[in-house]
Every structure is written in C-alpha cells, then in structure tokens.
Amino acid sequence: MVDIDKFIRPHLAKVQTYDPVDPPELLAKQAGIPEDQIVKLNGNENPYGGSPKAIAAVANTPLHIYPDPLQRKIRQALSDYTGASFDSIIVGAGADELIDLLFRLFMNPGDKMLDFEPTFGMYSFCARIAGGVVEFVPRDELFDLDVEAAKRAIDDRTKIIFVTSPNNPTGNLASEANVRELLDTGLIVVVDEAYFEFCNQTVSHLVDEYENLVILRTMSKWAGLAGLRVGYGIMNPKLVKHIIDIKPPYSVNVAAEAALVASIEDAPALLKNVRKIVDERDRLKDLLNEMPGVTPWPSYGNYILCQFAPGKAQEIFKQLASRGIFVRDYSSQRLKDCFRVAIGTPAETDAFISALREVV
Ligand SMILES: Cc1ncc(COP(=O)(O)O)c(C=O)c1O
Fold first, then answer.
1. Which of 57, 116, 184, 267 is within CB 3.0–4.6 Å of 258 for a Cys-Cys bond?
2. Which distant-in-sequence residues (6+ apart) come within 8 Å of 213 by Cβ?
3. Fold annotation for 4-49+268-359
4. pLDDT-derived band of residue 19, with 50, 70 and 90 as boundaries?
5. The CATH number of the domain covering residues in 52-266
6. How many angstroms is it from 155 CA to the middle of ligand 1?
C-alpha cells in the first residue's frame, strides 16, 4: 500500500475548509418536507431567477466548442454595462475564481492578507490554500472598518487587504475615505462589490487613480446566474494581463458566456427585479423591527443580518429549519447570536416572518 498522505503539501494536509450551503434537495430531505415547499434563504440567491433571454441564449449555445480564452465578447458586454474599459475587465467562474487567482498571483507562502472580520469566508479560505497567513482585523461595534488597526497590523509580509462593500453578512458599506486610506498604504486592496446593484455605491472610479485597486463584481446576485458561475473584476490592465496569464483558459464556460451577454442586454428587466428585492428588504426590515427579540442590522445588500438575545440564535435557526425555512447561521464568537436571511419573494418573506413569530 502506498501512503498517499505523504504526498499532500503540509499546509494542505489539515486545512480549515469553506462552509458552503447545501443544495435544496438535501435541505428538503433533512427537513422531511417536499422540495417545492422549502424556503431557501441561505445563499443570497435571486428569488426571481435569471433572465428568460439568458435561459434562451444558453439553450441555443453550441456546447462542443471551447470558450474564447481572451473572453472578447463578455469583456466587451461588461465594458458597455460598467463603463470600464475593455482591457480593465477580466471574467472568472464566479467572483470566487478571481479571489483564488488573486492569491495565486500575489501571495508567496507566509505572506499575509488582512481580513476585516466578520466578512465573507472565501478570502481567508483562499489565502490559507495559497499558503498565506490571515491576519484578522476585527470590525468596530457597528461593523465598520477599523482602518487604524489595519494599518497597525501591516508588516513587511503584508501583501493584500480585502474589503467587502456592502459587507456580507453585516450589510454595511465601506466609505470611499476608508478605502482611499487603505489604498494609500500601497498594498493591493480588493474591494468586493458583489452586491453593487442593490446599493449603487462603488469605488470603481478609483481604478484609474490607483494601480493597486481591484474591484470584484458578480452576475450571481443581480442577474440571478449563481448556478452558472460568472463574476468579473475591474482593475489596472497590467493586472488583467497577469491574471489572463495564470488563469485556466476555459474556466468561464460557453453557457455562462451566452447568459452573461443576454443578461446585460436584458439589464433593464433584471434591474426591475433588483428594485423589487430592495423594496422587499425594506418591508422585511420593518417587519423584523416590529418583532420583539430580534434586531435587524441595516443592509445595502440582498440580505439582512438578524441579531437575537444571547444564546438564542442557534435554537431559532434549528426551529426554522425544521419548518423548511433555511437561513445562514454562524459559529464565530462575534456572530453566534445572529443569522443572515436572504431577501426572497413577498410570499417567502411572509413564510419566514410567520415561522419566526412562532419560534422567537
Ligand atoms: C461578498 C461576496 N463576494 C463574492 C461572492 C461569490 O460570488 P460568485 O457567485 O460570483 O462566486 C459572494 C457570494 O455569496 C459574496 O457574498
């Protein structure tokens, strides 16, 4: 017998892995409820789905030809949509792939990244896989960035700082002044704007001014393409070139390409759905505010972080799951009394609220 364990790279032998969400059929089975009756609010997915034009475009796409490694059509479509230049755009199999590629590009083993916790878990996960060291910088009591603490944490191994705006799961924005201060450190600053369309706040106009700024966006949320895996970055063209050089050439598949182009063409209709989600977010927040025992945090994304009395969140989470209502829970000390609920349709909000009333 060969001992295959000895071949595993030591830093990957035992790694703290990412905690992803389970598929609907499994959630339904666990709850003992038919799949079409569960309310899935744990992935910040778009309750209205993708554009019918994107679905038609996928159906009409030949599947036997490789995608364009230089992504000409989709980068042009995104240039038209964002106003950023063609050569400042790169597309990945989800923003997730670009997060991974950024660590591959910048991090030597032992290099550090700064992570403003609590935040999206993918950054620290990818940093660890790359052999990097994650330096957590706690957010302040309102979940705002503690820029002074970040600056104090920087040493000669620090390479990259991740900022999420709006932050997942806390929902708040990073101010342009704070982002500028981080950029002025001269380190690579990645601003993840996955939820841009739900708030229309961006620092992408700073890309021309700062070569060290990377903006990440995705088609998963506003365009409802989470299952197809397509996200993009806006950054200095020099960085785009480096990413193209190291990227698996065909990672963005032809179905995702076709859906992206059709979604951009259908953006006015998709942005109407975004408007409905934003209105529903406000309605859900008002309903939560009326309910004793729960505090909703203000949110600029398509989700709300709900905070409960100490020690209560886990039990409420379990009770909701047993009724077929799935939200996202957290084990970290800072968020142990919270869960995050995605904004669904009005009917899903009503189901969530009535179950929550029962269990709180
Ligand atoms: C802040 C943030 N960035 C990136 C992503 C992942 O985006 P994608 O689906 O494009 O990989 C998510 C998904 O939840 C997210 O919350």
1. 57
2. 179, 183, 189, 191, 203, 206, 207, 235, 236
3. Aspartate Aminotransferase, domain 1 (3.90.1150)
4. confident
5. 3.40.640.10
6. 28
